[in-house]
Amino acid sequence: MRLSFLAVASAAAALSLVRAPRAPPCWCAPVTKPRRIFFNRVPKCGSTTLMSLIADAAAEHGFTSLRSPDFTHEHLSRAQRQAFVRFFATSAPPFVFNRHLHFVRFDEFAQNMAPVYMNLVRDPAAIRTSDFYFHRECVCTTRGAWCRTEWHRASPALCNRTIDDFYADMRTPVAMPGRLTAYFCGHEKECALLPTRAYGLGAEPSEGAREPLGASNISATVATAKRHLRDRYLWVGVLEDWEPSLALLSHLLPGFFGKVNVQYWAQQKRLPHGSRPGAKPSAETLAKMRAELAPDYEVYSYARRLLRCKLRSCGLLQPRGAAAAANGDALALVDDDAAQVDVKLLNREASAEHAGDRASAEHAAEHAGATAHARAVGGDDGNGDADAGPSARELRGLPGRALADAGIGH
């Protein structure tokens, strides 16, 4: 009796979840010679500045900086994800590839092909505000191709509209996952109901309306986003903690960013071409934003805890007093006592989750073994399901059209 390679691999992968110990979430493990880095950049989080830094570092360290021309397709079908993984696997390393794209789990299609993941986050209300004005300027001033379908809406009323105007008619904000949750949740089934595009300008009565998710759906998406953030990403910087974030980036990826002038880049704030800052939201608007973006704030707060925790593990913290004296409270976040608490909390969360994963993995291994046997004798797994992932040959033979459909390019 012969078992298919994919069936055996499925069982082995499930068993590996039981056997492989999970590294502590704050483990300081620099990667000296990464081959491929994926920066699935969250929009409006300061990524323009970071991309400038990456371009400079590429010239200094001899890697390639690749950028997708697709700025609109953030969420991919399974076929498009498969094409994206193939593109990634066949591009010549070393490189950093950046694209506005929800987290892609490479091991869905190919083992031992996962890149080093990195990202940058920002206060959700600041993301929302920046998004609003960037959209407004596209329609009214820059006339970017990505908002071409809305050019006809340009008018004095729309082009003078502020973020406060947008929220003025909102009485009771409904909590809804936004950019941060969607980008880190990725393409798991619980993430499918998340919005794939940001709010528009709110000038038309129906615009911006979204069906609220149930509390259990929101909880599941936030939990997945936090798990990916913790377990999959080597580095997630925080724009509000830009200088310590850069110090950690340089430390964790010395072969790519070890020569970065942290002090210089900490002072840089570069806007996308054609952007200009808009009016800041009022206190009332901010309160509505925080209520509406509560799921994103949970993910954002978790990212800050992880940052602080990793800084401590890597020996990059300063005591609060020294940091405040040297930087005028710029590094007040990275307080050593608070970081010690974060280490304990994060490790406790990871341990509890791993205990649950172990039970699930044991069940998955049993199911995978039964599936392997059924397929070996010419049947399926009883559910009529096909193999979950392609073989290496299938990946290599993926048609070029699928790559085009995935919006892949340098």
UniProtKB/TrEMBL annotation:
Compositional bias annotation for Basic and acidic residues: 352-366
Keyword line: Glycoprotein, Golgi apparatus, Membrane, Signal, Signal-anchor, Transferase, Transmembrane, Transmembrane helix
Gene Ontology CC terms, in alphabetical order: Golgi membrane
Annotated region described as Disordered, given as residue ranges: 352-410
Leader sequence segment: 1-28
Bilayer topology: Single-pass type II membrane protein
Segments of skewed composition (Low complexity): 367-377
GO MF annotations, alphabetized: sulfotransferase activity
Keyword flag Membrane: yes
SUPFAM superfamilies listed in its UniProt record: P-loop containing nucleoside triphosphate hydrolases
Compartments where located: Golgi apparatus membrane
The keyword Membrane is assigned to this record: yes
Record PANTHER family: HEPARAN SULFATE 2-O-SULFOTRANSFERASE (PTHR12129), URONYL 2-SULFOTRANSFERASE (PTHR12129:SF15)
Protein's name in the database: Sulfotransferase
Organism: Diacronema lutheri (Unicellular marine alga)
